[in-house]
């Protein structure tokens, strides 16, 4: 007798996200969450390779395959005593990316996210470099105003760099220009490369910037009044928001970043006090990872976020 499949504990076999069933975004399927991989890294200005991020996250996500078990999905949260992530997950595979044709690739990304939303599922997107957040958010045209919560070491708010306007260093600027994005709340900003002009432009646009050093000094709960409440929220999680020691597998790591407990608490505050309309986790680059810890951390952050969005009603 082998019921490991039914129990959802086998880590073996093809690595879909948490061993979820693989579907085509534009097919006939139904699930609470549609996970989508975007293996695109043409927006990276420094060390490329985030195209392998979705695979790295899926590889380690099989550790959490009980989430997709038949009969009793989800996990028991030791901290709250609650069952969490009581939801169904479909893995929509990867967007087909072709070399060099970035505008066409962006269109494919937008289209895939549109399909997921049309199925009534909540998109959870795995990058790819951070530039993909712009084509993902384009798929929300016509939606209610969205507050974007950004976890990141960098503002990514540069208007233009040597003619480039859609790279990963410009992405929040482009996102903020979308008519349905009302505000950006950036958490964990600390890079020495932060430019005064970009910082001022972001504040002038009505965004909020939570610096890493302030978070270390005061703790996440001190910022509760700055975080959105009762809004429609899209979370974009650049893994370099985490401390470089926890997440070395990324193109532009920065020391002095968030601890796991800080990031988790921010996710809890954001996901439980708002309506989450989408989530992405970007910039995982397994070429620089050590012991797959960045892939594992990323999978766990996604699952904790799912757990906050889908707690069991009890
Ligand atoms: Mn970023």
Architecture overview:
- This protein has helices spanning 4-7, 53-61, 102-118, 133-138, 171-176, 196-204, 212-218, 260-272, 293-309; strands spanning 21-22, 33-38, 75-77, 82-84, 89-94, 122-127, 146-151, 181-189, 208-211, 232-238, 275-282.
- By secondary structure, the chain is of the alpha/beta class.
- The chain has one domain: 3-Layer(aba) Sandwich (Arginase, Chain A).
- Strands 1-5-2-6-11-10-7-8-9 form a 9-stranded parallel β-sheet, with helices on both faces. The chain has a two-stranded antiparallel ribbon with strand order 3-4.
- The longest helix is centred in the middle third of the chain and has 17 residues, at 102-118.
- The protein is globular and about 60 Å long.
- Manganese (II) ion is lined by residues 130, 152, 154, 156, 168, 238.
- Manganese (II) ion binds next to loops.
């Amino acid at each position: 007798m082998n019921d490991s499949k039914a129990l959802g504990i086998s880590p073996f076999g093809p690595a879909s996200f948490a061993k979820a069933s693989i579907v085509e975004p534009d097919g006939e399927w139904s699930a609470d969450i549609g996970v989508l991989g975007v293996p695109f890294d043409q927006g990276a200005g420094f060390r490329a390779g985030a195209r392998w991020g979705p695979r790295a996250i899926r590889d380690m996500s099989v550790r959490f395959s009980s989430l997709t078990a038949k009969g009793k999905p989800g996990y028991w949260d030791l901290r709250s005593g609650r069952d969490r992530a009581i939801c169904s997950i479909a893995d929509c595979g990867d967007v087909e990316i072709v070399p060099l044709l970035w505008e066409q690739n962006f269109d494919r990304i937008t289209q895939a996210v549109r399909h997921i939303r049309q199925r009534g599922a909540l998109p959870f997107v795995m990058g790819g470099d951070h530039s993909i957040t712009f084509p993902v958010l384009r798929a929300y045209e016509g939606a209610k105003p969205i507050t974007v919560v950004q976890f990141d070491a960098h503002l990514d708010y540069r208007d233009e760099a040597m003619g480039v306007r859609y790279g990963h260093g410009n992405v929040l600027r482009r996102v903020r220009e979308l008519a349905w994005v009302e505000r950006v709340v950036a958490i964990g900003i600390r890079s020495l490369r932060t430019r005064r002009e970009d910082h001022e432009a972001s504040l002038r646009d009505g965004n909020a910037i939570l610096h890493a050093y302030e978070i270390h000094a005061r703790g996440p709960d001190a910022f509760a009044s700055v975080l959105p409440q009762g809004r429609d929220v899209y979370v974009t999680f650049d893994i370099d928001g985490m401390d470089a020691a926890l997440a070395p597998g990324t193109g532009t790591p920065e020391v002095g970043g968030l601890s796991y407990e800080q990031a988790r608490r921010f996710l809890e505050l954001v996901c439980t006090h708002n309506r989450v309309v989408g989530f992405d986790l970007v910039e995982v680059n397994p070429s620089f990872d050590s012991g797959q810890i960045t892939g594992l951390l990323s999978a766990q952050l996604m699952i904790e976020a799912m757990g906050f969005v889908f707690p069991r009603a009890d």
